[in-house]
Structure formats: structure tokens, C-alpha cells
TrEMBL record, chain A:
<keyword id="KW-0813">Transport</keyword>
<feature type="transmembrane region" description="Helical">
    <location>
        <begin position="113"/>
        <end position="136"/>
    </location>
</feature>
<keyword id="KW-1003">Cell membrane</keyword>
<feature type="transmembrane region" description="Helical">
    <location>
        <begin position="288"/>
        <end position="313"/>
    </location>
</feature>
<dbReference type="Pfam" id="PF02653">
    <property type="entry name" value="BPD_transp_2"/>
</dbReference>
<keyword id="KW-0762">Sugar transport</keyword>
<feature type="transmembrane region" description="Helical">
    <location>
        <begin position="206"/>
        <end position="225"/>
    </location>
</feature>
From TrEMBL, chain B:
<keyword id="KW-1133">Transmembrane helix</keyword>
<feature type="transmembrane region" description="Helical">
    <location>
        <begin position="204"/>
        <end position="225"/>
    </location>
</feature>
<dbReference type="GO" id="GO:0005886">
    <property type="term" value="C:plasma membrane"/>
</dbReference>
<feature type="transmembrane region" description="Helical">
    <location>
        <begin position="67"/>
        <end position="89"/>
    </location>
</feature>
<keyword id="KW-1003">Cell membrane</keyword>
<dbReference type="GO" id="GO:0022857">
    <property type="term" value="F:transmembrane transporter activity"/>
</dbReference>
<keyword id="KW-0812">Transmembrane</keyword>
UniProtKB/TrEMBL annotation, chain C:
<keyword id="KW-1278">Translocase</keyword>
<dbReference type="GO" id="GO:0016887">
    <property type="term" value="F:ATP hydrolysis activity"/>
</dbReference>
<dbReference type="Pfam" id="PF00005">
    <property type="entry name" value="ABC_tran"/>
</dbReference>
<protein>
    <submittedName>
        <fullName>Simple sugar transport system ATP-binding protein</fullName>
    </submittedName>
</protein>
<dbReference type="GO" id="GO:0005524">
    <property type="term" value="F:ATP binding"/>
</dbReference>
<dbReference type="InterPro" id="IPR003439">
    <property type="entry name" value="ABC_transporter-like_ATP-bd"/>
</dbReference>
<feature type="domain" description="ABC transporter">
    <location>
        <begin position="258"/>
        <end position="502"/>
    </location>
</feature>
Length: 386, 325, 514
């Protein structure tokens, strides 16, 4: 028990918990200042998502998207790629899934399957451009992926307005996807579950995507920690020079990390199309682009932490919706809290840090090998932002 | 409309004036980002600072009725956010990239949050009466046909933006502090040995980037429009960062890159009148940026290869000479 | 001649217990050129860092110009008119020569930097001391010799009277070295004092008035240069090496395993670092490379292992030229590599010990099973290796960064040795690690050599090279200067003469032993 309390994992957990606590505390202080009835407002924020079945449903649905986005970022961050093209990959994935579901003349099961496949492939391919530019020409992946996000969004709007849009509908959107081509509820139709299932369907629309997401978490975990591919990717992320020395093809690992992450962004696209909106609609990914980073950082880039972080932020987001509807505090409070937590979690010096001998080793060896080495190490640390 | 009208449009004074108008809110954050970047602290929060500046400016102008107080407040708000970033990165050792994203999140969330508290609306601030900065009609020049229409009559921010390119140039290349700032960015170790305080220099660089980004934000909310909208910066902060890379981290280069974007955007506006779908046309500026970045990166790589080849050849020649001798 | 600097009884113990200086007395007279020589790790650099205020002495006193001083940072040293030119230059690459010279103390006019004055000042200093530079050239575009002159001008701009030059000729061509010497003489004529750190005894003879020799953190002696020969200096420097207590079974040299033919390498700035180096490696033999650091050893190893691209040559292994192949291809040919810089290349510090042990094999059977990596096997194998190589750790799941330097090196050695290498290239295999680990690694090297591996050993520790190698090659300025087929029969004095470029064998003499 004692060793557990001292273990790295536990301390990391404490650190994050403390950051969350401070973030939520700050949120409360802000609420005190702005609300007529701060206690109830904050109560609705913290407890709201659990208050009704449909709210639990909303929470879970939101979380599923967030978890997939978190996994996406988790993959690229493990390879130390500062790639944020997730939104583009997601929207084009959504588009691919939507088009297949709307137009490909196949029976339901294969059609849904094809929709998944199309979204995953499109997500991966959209990552290819910044990946190639980064790997072979060292073009800043951050900037290129951001620009490509906008291009993807415009492309989506273009296709939607010119080829898909339903003239009769009031909003810019496609027709609804046929019921049989959507994803079904996640509760299997078994006799003893029948009543729960009916109740659930009436109130919410949490779909079988739950299982896909669980599978995705496990797949990413295994991919990163149990396969040669994940090994390459993480070694490149930890020390690119070591990877090269050991014979790893660094360029290929960089490209693959971005493309593989696109598969999961594509899945997020499937989720918002076939489970949440049930159609293609303008602005369907708004504000989600950077959420994956919040989740991945909160999860310390560990895929097994991603569902927890995703459910947590999903909960806060759902709670903020409830708060907005039932009090005078608007939901954007949650962004301020998230930002605070993000800052605190990455602030090594501010919250008690996990100190292993790693730091000491680096210090003493730098001194022995002269200042050049110290500088190199520092540059390595800073290179991703330069 | 025909292609001919579009082409005629592109060569009109109005078009050129629109390029200037669109470039302005990119030049500001780009110049600010440039200062931070050359100091070795790339500021990823430009977007958020623009939003904060835009919001603060509008609100303070509405409540004080003073445009100058509003501008001052906007700048202060921008600087404070930049300093928050600096404190977390330089003192608490947060990752600068992540901290920048956090600052953006805080800005976009915080502005809408406050907007709602103040106006009861979450989309924009149209319910409060805010002010705009004056337009400047340049005497003499305004009367010159064509040229006058291009150069005169812009809001004061526009002139300030272009003037800031000159200011940043002078600051970085002609003042002691600016020179030290560049040295800190390129070789902090060397700067330290000469008694230059790296942390303080970087902190100030971030603060300066905050000033410019905030001005960029106010240019959106207090010039052509007199209101704040949710997510008003709409990606301009990020485009500013792209412009820094594209402009090879030189003030004039960065300005030209910003204008290139403005030009592409203005073209897309012109083409909007043709029968080409607007969304495709709107991609032009972003696609231009990606292509330009790619070309730039490829060129850099090519140049390095050439240099290596040159050395190899010299070496082989000298070996040959040795053997003969 | 009165002393301008006196360092008395200087002791420096680093936090990790390394004693870099042990009671050093060092005196420099005003207006002299004082050479400071010693092997790598002799403590020269530490002594000079103390004098320049970068490091603080554990014990001892520094007297400058008759006054006792304490330097908290290099700024204090600069205040006392001491300037230092570091081996890796402290320049801002995108700035002009002149801007670098005045950086931190720019002349102003109306609040702005007076650019004309900046150029003028640089020109004046440059003329005054015969340090020719082009003031408006960008540092990035000038060669190393010019960069060095900029560094010297920087110290002169800060009114330095005492200049410390840390191995200034290591990166220069012979012509540039001559230019530097001319400049140093000019400096001294104008009343400056120069401390000149070097390994190159020819240069000591040529330029210095007095020379101080250091060895193993101690001062061996200070003499007037004209009174000693290079051979005598070499003896002082290398001294009697402690022969290591290693029992080496008789060598059974077998077939040729690697043929290295005319390898050349150019630095980024175009300086030839390796010049047509040729030698062969044989099964069952350790070939040691003796040389003062910075004479091309690092680059030789990196070219052979595929980490750097050569400028020509051939490396034949199993009838195939593998020069400039990828590191993976080279490893697949059975070539293992212990890298000289542990933390840069050798390990991924945040990854587990296990994962550090498999970087050369994770992609093939039996580790790769279908699409998965068999971590059970990794666990078993790493347990075996941890035991076999006595790596001190509770378990293999801990990050390799949690190990001490010696154990970290054992992880690398375990990985590279356990691949049953066809050829092993070991670069500084025991640098900076404890005695126990050092001994262990040396014994392992001998063991696999006796088992029939071909080994190339590169080490800055001459004692190590001499006691482990069967055959020794000396490398000086990127060229092979001598080959000694029976390592046991050559004296360190003899070797020193070749390592320091004083003696050369002819190509014909060397040919049959390479």
C-alpha cells in the first residue's frame, strides 16, 4: 500500500485530481460573482447530468465523441507530433459516412459497415498531406494541419450545399438518414432487458457506438503498447535519435502516427453522423477540434485514461448545458474551467511533480559532457514549438 | 457576371483597398507573434488574445464612451493573457504549446461567458452601443484618383498595422532590447553569458505579442464593425502564425505573407460573384498558405542539399589536387 | 614578469562525486602565451571554467592582478577583464559579425543602435589586432576560422586583457591555424595575455612561452616551452597508464569481417573530418582506435553505423558494400553499436528498461508474433539480460532513466552484446560510469572477442585501448598515422607520438597490418 502511494501512477493521479479540484473551485468562485443563485447554479452544473435519464444519455453521447477525439490526439502526441488536424479528419470522415449511408444502395448491415470503413479511410488519408510535408520537408505540422482543417470544413460545406442538401429542409442539411441505416441502441434486444431498452430508446439515443468506442480504446491501447508499430511510434516520440540509432524508420513512423490517428477521428465523424445528428448538417463539428487535446493531456496521453477523461469532460459539458438552461450562468464557464485544468496539469513546477531520477540523471550527465549536450537536450525539448 | 467583370474588379481600386482591409487583422497578430517567435517563445494564444482584445475594447468603449480608454483596456487585457501564458511557461514550466491552447480556450470561453453576463446575448454585443475608431482621410492623397481610393479613408488601425511593420522592424533590428530579444531566441546560452536575462526578455516579448494581437482583435470589433461576435478572430490568429513561418520570420516577409493571404481572400470574394461555389472559392486563401508553406519547406531542403553538394565537390577537387601534388 | 593570474590549490568536486581538479596550482604571467595541455578528462576545461566563473571551485583561491577574487558568474570574470573563447562558439548565427561582437553592449545613437559605429568599432578592433573579419557578413555564412576571430573580437570588445582559448585549433585547417597564431602574437605584442588549451604539442612548441601539463585532475608541472621537447611533453601528458587487470586469452584471429576502404567524411561546414581511412576488422580480434578526441573517431563510428552520410569510400561486409545504408540495414548485417553518447543515442530515457533492450529486434521473430509484439517474451528475455549483465534494478518495467549511469550503460551493452553481433562497434563503452560497471563491460568485450566477434573499440581512455586491444590504429586529424599489430608490445609514449601527430608511418609500412 505504501509503495502504491509513492508510485508514479498514483502521484500523477493526485496531481491531475488536484488540478481538477482547483479548476472546479475557480469555476465556483466565478459563479459566486456572476450568479443570483450561485449554489443552485453550481449544483445544476455538478449534478445536472445525472438528474434525468435523457441527460445521462446526452452525457454519454457527448463523451463518446470526446473519447474518440482523445484517442486520436493520444496517438499523435505519443509520437511527439504537434498535429491538430483532427477536426478536418473528423468532418471529412463524417461526410464519407453520411454519403455512404444516404446513397450507396446496399442493405443496412453492409451499408453501415461501409460507412465506417469509408470514414476511417478518409480520416487517415486526409492526414497524409501534413504528414508527408512534415516527414520529408519538416514543414510545421501545426500550421499545415490547421489550414487543412479550414479547407476540410469548406469542402464539407461545399459538398453539402451543392450535392447533398435537402431543398425542403429549413437548415443546411441532408435528408435524415434512413432509420435502418442508423446505429441502433446499445442495449441488446433480449427479453429480460426489454423494458429497460424501451425506456432508454424513448429517452436517449446512445447507440452501439458505445461498443465501438470501448473497442477503440482497447485497440489503441494494444496498438500503442503491444505492437511493434506502437513501439516504433513511442520510441520516436520519446527520443527520435535513439529510434534512428536503433534502426527505426522515423519518417515512416511520423507519417503512420498521423494517418492511424485519422482512423479514430474518422470514427468520431461516424458517431456524430450516424448516432448524434442522423444526417449531415452544417457546422456539425464546431468547437470539437481542440477537445481531443484537453482529453489527451488530462489522460497523460495514456489511452486507458482517455475514457475517464472523456467521460469527465463530457460530464462537465453536459452539466454546463443543464446549468445554462436552469440558471443564469452560461455554459462557457466550462471552457474556463477546462483551460485552467489544462494549464495546471502541464505546469510541472506548480503542482507537486513526480520526480524520478530521470531529471537528476540528465543534470549530472549534462555537466559531465559539457554545455553542448545540455543545450542539445534543451533544444530537443523545445524543438516542437519552434 | 462574367469573368471579365471579375478581372476588371481585381484591377480596381476597391479591390486593392479590400486587400488592405483584409490583411490588417492578420498583420497585427502576425507582428506580435513574430516578436514572440524570434524570442524563442512562439505564442499559440494569438487567436485567444485577439478575441479578448476585441471583446474588452467593445465593452469598455460602450461603458466609458471613450475610444482611447477602450483601446488601452483592450491592450491591457491582451497583455495580461499573454503574461499569464508567460508565467505558466517560463516560471511553472508548462508546455508552451499546450499553455497557448489553454489560453485560447479560456479566451473564447471567457469572452462569451462575460458577453452573456453583460448583454444577455451569446452571439454578439449588438445590444450595447460601442464606438469605432475614426477613419483617416489623408489630405492631398485622398484627392488623387485611384491612389486616393486605395490609400485613404481606412480606419486608423489599418495605418497603424502597416506602421507597426516598420516599428517591429526598427524594434528588432535597431534597438538594443530588440537585438537582445533575437539573440535570446537564437542562442539563449550565448545571450546568458553576455548578461542578458533570458526569462525577462521572453516575458516582455510575450507581452508585446499581446499588445499586437489585442490591436488585431480591436480592428475587428471597433473599425468596420462596432460589435463583438463570438469567436470574432475566426482563425486569423492562426493564419498570423502561418504568416510568420511563410514570411521567414522577417517583418517585411511576414507582412507580405499576410498580404498574400489577404489577396487570396479578396480574390475569393471577387470570384464569389462568378458561378463558382463560394465554399471552393473560400478555400483559396488556406490552400494558398499550405502550398506556399510546402514550397518554402521544399526550397529550404533543396538549398541545404545544394550547399552539401558544393562542399563535397570542393573536397573532391582538393583531394585530386593533393594527389597530383 | 609578474603573475597576472594565480590559481592556488584549486579543488573541484562535482555533485556526482567526480573530482575534476585536485589541488591545482596555476600561474600565468602578464603578456605571455601560456599553453595548458592534458588528455581528455585531465581537468583543463574545468580549471578554465572556474577561472571564467562558469563553475565555482570547491576549495582554493583565485588571484587576479594581485587581488583575491570570487566569481559568481562569467559576468564577474568579464568585469575582471577575463575573456573566454569556447570550443563550441557562442554566436548568434543570423546576426552579422559586427552585431555579434558588440552584443550586450551595443553603441547607441538617439536611443537606436548606431549601426555605423557598430561596424566601425568592429573594423577598428579587427585592424588593431590583425583579426581579419568582414564586419557586415552574416555569421551563418562565414567559415569556422572567421567565427573564431569573431569570438576573440567579442572578448576584446569587452576589454579583455586575459584571453582563454579553449582548444581553438581543434576545428581549424592548417592555414587557419597559422592565421590564428599570427593573431595571437599580435595580441600579446599589444599587452594581452593568452591561455591556450590544446592537445597538439606541435602547436605548443610553435606558439607558447610556457606550458602547464595536467593529468588526472592534477598539475604535473609548468615549464618554459623552449626547454622541453615534444617527446618530453608527451610523456608528461600521457604518463604511466595504469594497466588494467584483465586476463585476456590468446587471440585467435580468423576471417576478415569488415573491410573499410577510403572512407571520407565532411563536416557541415565542409571541413574534411575523415580522410580516406582504411582498415579491416577480423573475427576474434579487438582493433582499438587511439586518438585524442575530435580527430574523427566520432564521425568514423557514425558513418560505419549509418547515422551519418559519408563523402565517399566503401565498407564491405559479407561481400556487400553497406556504406550509407540505413541504420536498420546495417544492423541486419549483424553490426552492433555501443554509441558514445548514452543519453542522445543509446537510450530512450522515459521508456522502460525492457523497451530499451529490444530496439534492434522488436520487429522480427520471435519478438514479433503476428501483428503483436510478444511482451511476455520481452519480459522473460529482459529478465535474463538483467540477470546476466547484473543490471541493478527492481524490475525491467521501470524507466531506464531511473538507473545510474553505469547501469544504463549496461542496458545498452546487454542489448548490443545479446544480438550475437558479427561485428561490434564500441564507442567510449565505459565513459563516465562506476568502476564496477567499467570492469564488467571490459570483461564482456574480451569474452565476446574470444568467442569470435570482430570488435572496433574507440575510447578516449588510452589505458583502456591499450589493455583491451589486440591491434591498435592511431587516428590524427582524420587520418591514420600508425598501426601497431601487437598492442601489447607498444609503449604509451610511442603511441602518444602518433596520436599527437608527431610521428607518422608511411602507407607502405602500414599496409600489411591494417
Amino acid at each position: 500500500m505504501k509503495s502504491f502511494l509513492k508510485s508514479k501512477g498514483f502521484r500523477e493521479f493526485l496531481r491531475i485530481a488536484l488540478a481538477l479540484f482547483i479548476g472546479l473551485g475557480l469555476g465556483f468562485i466565478i459563479t459566486l460573482f456572476v450568479s443570483e443563485d450561485p449554489i443552485n447554479a453550481y449544483k445544476s452544473f455538478l449534478l445536472g447530468p445525472l438528474s434525468r435519464l435523457n441527460r445521462i444519455g446526452d452525457w454519454l453521447e457527448e463523451s463518446l465523441t470526446l473519447i474518440l477525439l482523445g484517442l486520436t490526439i493520444c496517438i499523435v502526441f505519443n509520437a511527439s507530433q504537434w498535429y491538430i488536424g483532427v477536426e478536418g479528419q473528423m468532418i471529412l470522415g463524417a461526410m464519407a459516412a453520411g454519403i455512404v449511408s444516404l446513397y450507396v444502395p446496399l442493405p443496412p448491415a453492409p451499408r453501415i459497415l461501409l460507412a465506417f470503413l469509408a470514414a476511417m479511410i478518409v480520416g487517415a488519408l486526409w492526414g497524409l498531406i501534413p504528414a508527408l510535408l512534415k516527414a520529408y520537408y519538416n514543414a510545421n505540422e501545426l500550421v499545415t494541419s490547421l489550414m487543412l482543417n479550414t479547407i476540410a470544413l469548406k469542402l464539407f460545406e461545399y459538398v453539402l450545399k451543392n450535392f447533398i442538401m435537402n431543398e425542403k429542409s429549413r437548415s443546411v442539411s441532408s435528408e435524415s438518414i434512413g432509420k435502418e441505416f442508423r446505429l441502433g441502441t446499445f442495449i441488446p434486444d433480449l427479453p429480460f432487458l426489454h423494458n429497460i431498452r424501451e425506456l432508454w430508446i424513448k429517452q436517449t439515443s446512445v447507440t452501439v457506438m458505445v461498443y465501438v468506442v470501448i473497442a477503440a480504446v482497447i485497440v489503441v491501447y494494444y496498438l500503442l503498447y503491444k505492437t511493434p508499430f506502437g513501439y516504433e511510434l513511442r520510441m520516436v516520440g520519446i527520443n527520435g535519435k535513439f529510434a534512428r540509432y536503433g534502426g527505426i524508420n522515423v519518417n515512416r513512423a511520423v507519417i503512420m502516427s498521423i494517418m492511424v490517428s485519422g482512423i479514430f477521428a474518422g470514427l468520431a465523424g461516424v458517431h456524430i453522423t450516424l448516432a448524434i445528428h442522423n444526417k449531415l448538417i452544417s457546422n456539425m463539428t464546431s468547437g470539437l477540434g481542440f477537445e481531443g487535446i484537453n482529453i489527451a493531456i488530462l489522460a497523460s496521453n495514456n489511452p486507458l485514461g482517455v475514457p475517464i477523461a472523456g467521460l469527465l469532460y463530457g460530464y462537465l459539458r453536459a452539466g454546463s448545458d443543464v446549468m445554462e438552461r436552469s440558471s443564469d450562468v452560461s455554459r462557457e464557464l466550462v471552457f474556463v474551467i477546462q483551460a485552467m485544468v489544462l494549464l495546471l496539469v502541464t505546469a510541472e513546477r506548480l503542482l507537486p511533480v513526480v520526480r524520478t531520477r530521470i531529471a537528476e540523471n540528465q543534470d549530472s550527465d549534462n555537466r559531465n559532457n559539457g554545455s553542448k549536450n545540455a543545450k542539445q537536450l534543451k533544444e530537443e525539448g523545445e524543438s516542437h514549438v519552434a | 457576371m462574367s469573368l471579365e467583370t471579375v478581372i476588371r474588379g481585381i484591377f480596381s481600386s476597391l479591390f486593392i483597398a479590400s486587400v488592405i482591409r483584409i490583411s490588417t487583422p492578420i498583420i497585427f497578430p502576425a507582428m506580435g507573434g513574430l516578436v514572440a517567435q524570434v524570442a524563442g517563445v512562439p505564442n499559440m494564444a494569438l487567436e485567444g488574445i485577439m478575441n479578448v482584445g476585441a471583446f474588452t475594447g467593445v465593452m469598455v468603449s460602450a461603458f466609458t464612451g471613450s475610444i482611447w480608454l477602450a483601446i488601452l483596456a483592450g491592450i491591457i487585457a491582451g497583455v495580461l493573457l499573454a503574461l499569464l501564458l508567460g508565467v505558466f511557461h517560463l516560471h511553472f514550466k508548462s508546455d508552451l504549446f499546450i499553455a497557448g491552447l489553454a489560453a485560447n480556450l479560456m479566451a473564447s470561453g471567457g469572452t462569451v461567458f462575460l458577453l452573456y453576463i453583460i448583454t444577455g446575448d451569446k452571439g454578439n454585443s449588438s445590444t450595447v452601443r460601442s464606438l469605432s475608431v475614426p477613419n483617416v482621410n489623408i489630405p492631398l492623397i485622398k484627392d488623387i484618383p485611384f491612389v486616393g481610393e486605395i490609400l485613404s479613408g481606412h480606419p486608423v488601425f489599418t495605418y497603424l498595422a502597416f506602421f507597426s511593420v516598420f516599428l517591429v522592424y526598427i524594434f528588432l533590428y535597431r534597438t538594443r532590447f530588440g537585438t537582445h530579444l533575437r539573440a535570446v531566441g537564437e542562442n539563449p546560452e550565448a545571450a546568458t553569458t553576455l548578461g542578458i536575462n533570458v526569462v525577462r526578455t521572453r516575458m516582455i516579448a510575450l507581452a508585446i505579442s499581446g499588445i499586437f494581437a489585442a490591436l488585431g482583435g480591436m480592428n475587428l470589433s471597433m473599425a468596420y464593425l462596432q460589435l463583438f461576435q463570438k469567436e470574432m478572430a475566426a482563425g486569423r490568429g492562426w493564419i498570423g502564425i502561418a504568416a510568420i513561418h511563410l514570411g521567414a520570420r522577417k517583418p517585411v516577409g511576414v507582412m507580405l505573407a499576410s498580404i498574400l493571404f489577404g489577396f487570396a481572400d479578396a480574390i475569393s470574394n471577387q470570384l464569389g460573384s462568378l458561378n463558382i461555389p463560394s465554399q471552393l472559392v473560400q478555400m483559396i486563401p488556406y490552400a494558398t498558405t499550405v502550398v506556399a508553406l510546402a514550397v518554402y519547406a521544399i526550397q529550404q531542403r533543396q538549398a541545404a542539399l545544394e550547399r552539401m553538394k558544393k562542399y563535397q565537390k570542393e573536397h573532391i577537387d582538393s583531394l585530386a589536387a593533393e594527389h597530383q601534388g | 614578469m609578474q603573475p597576472i593570474i594565480e590559481m592556488k590549490e584549486i579543488v573541484k568536486v562535482y555533485d556526482n562525486g567526480v573530482v575534476a581538479n585536485n589541488g591545482v596550482n596555476f600561474t600565468v604571467n602578464k603578456g605571455e602565451i601560456h599553453a595548458l595541455v592534458g588528455e581528455n578528462g585531465a581537468g583543463k576545461s574545468t580549471l578554465m571554467k572556474i577561472l571564467y566563473g562558469i563553475e565555482q571551485p570547491t576549495e582554493g583561491e583565485i588571484i587576479v592582478d594581485g587581488k583575491s577574487v570570487t566569481f559568481k558568474s562569467s559576468l564577474d570574470a568579464i568585469d575582471h577583464k577575463i575573456g573566454m573563447v569556447h570550443q563550441n562558439f557562442m554566436l548568434v548565427p543570423s546576426f552579422t559579425v559586427a552585431s555579434n561582437v558588440v552584443l550586450g553592449g551595443e553603441p547607441l545613437k538617439k536611443g537606436l543602435i548606431d549601426r555605423e559605429r557598430v561596424l566601425e568599432v568592429t573594423k577598428e578592433l579587427s585592424d588593431q589586432f590583425g583579426l581579419f573579419v568582414q564586419p557586415d557578413a552574416i555569421v551563418d555564412s562565414i567559415n569556422v576560422g572567421q567565427r573564431q576571430r569573431v569570438e576573440i573580437l567579442k572578448t576584446l570588445y569587452r576589454k579583455a586583457e586575459i584571453l582563454i582559448l579553449d582548444e581553438p585549433t581543434a576545428v581549424l585547417t592548417p592555414q587557419e591555424t597559422q592565421d590564428l597564431f599570427k593573431a595571437i602574437r599580435t595580441l600579446v605584442q599589444q599587452g594581452k595575455t593568452v591561455i591556450f588549451i590544446t592537445h597538439k604539442l606541435r602547436e605548443v612548441k610553435e606558439i607558447s612561452d610556457r606550458v602547464t601539463v595536467m593529468r588526472h585532475g592534477k598539475m604535473i608541472g609548468t615549464v618554459d616551452t623552449k626547454d622541453v621537447t615534444r617527446e618530453q611533453m608527451a610523456n608528461m601528458m600521457v604518463g604511466r597508464e595504469v594497466f588494467l587487470n584483465i586476463t585476456k586469452p590468446e587471440m585467435h584471429r580468423a576471417e576478415k569481417r569488415m573491410e573499410i576502404k577510403d572512407i571520407s567524411f565532411l563536416s557541415e561546414t565542409g571541413r574534411p573530418v575523415l580522410r580516406e581511412v582504411s582498415f579491416n576488422l577480423y573475427a576474434g580480434e579487438i582493433l582499438g582506435i587511439a586518438g585524442v578526441e575530435g580527430n574523427g573517431q566520432t564521425e568514423l563510428v557514425e558513418v560505419l553505423t549509418g547515422l551519418k552520410k559519408s563523402a565517399g569510400g566503401r565498407v564491405i561486409v559479407k561481400d556487400e558494400d553497406i556504406l550509407d545504408h540505413s541504420p536498420r540495414d546495417i544492423r541486419l548485417k549483424g553490426i552492433a553499436h555501443i554509441p558514445e553518447d548514452r543519453l542522445t543515442n543509446g537510450v530512450a530515457i522515459r521508456a522502460s528498461i525492457e523497451e530499451n533492450l529490444i530496439v534492434d529486434r522488436y520487429f522480427r521473430a520471435p519478438y514479433k508474433k503476428g501483428v503483436m509484439l510478444d511482451y511476455k517474451l520481452v519480459d522473460t528475455k529482459s529478465k535474463e539480460l538483467i540477470k546476466q549483465f547484473s543490471i541493478l534494478t527492481p524490475n525491467g518495467k521501470l524507466p531506464v532513466g531511473s538507473l545510474s549511469g553505469g547501469n544504463m550503460q549496461k542496458v545498452i551493452v546487454a542489448r548490443e552484446f545479446s544480438s550475437d553481433p558479427y561485428v561490434l562497434i564500441a564507442s567510449q563503452p565505459t565513459r563516465g560510469i562506476d568502476v564496477g560497471a567499467t570492469e564488467f563491460i571490459r570483461e564482456e568485450l574480451v569474452r565476446i572477442r574470444t568467442k569470435g566477434c570482430a570488435i572496433l573499440l574507440v575510447s578516449a581512455d588510452l589505458g583502456e585501448v591499450m589493455s583491451l586491444s589486440d591491434r591498435i590504429v592511431t587516428l590524427y586529424e582524420g587520418k591514420i598515422t600508425g598501426v601497431f599489430p601487437k598492442a601489447a608490445e607498444v609503449s604509451e609514449e610511442e603511441l602518444g607520438l602518433y596520436m599527437l601527430g608527431i610521428k607518422h608511418q608511411t602507407p607502405e609500412e602500414m599496409e600489411k597490418f591494417l
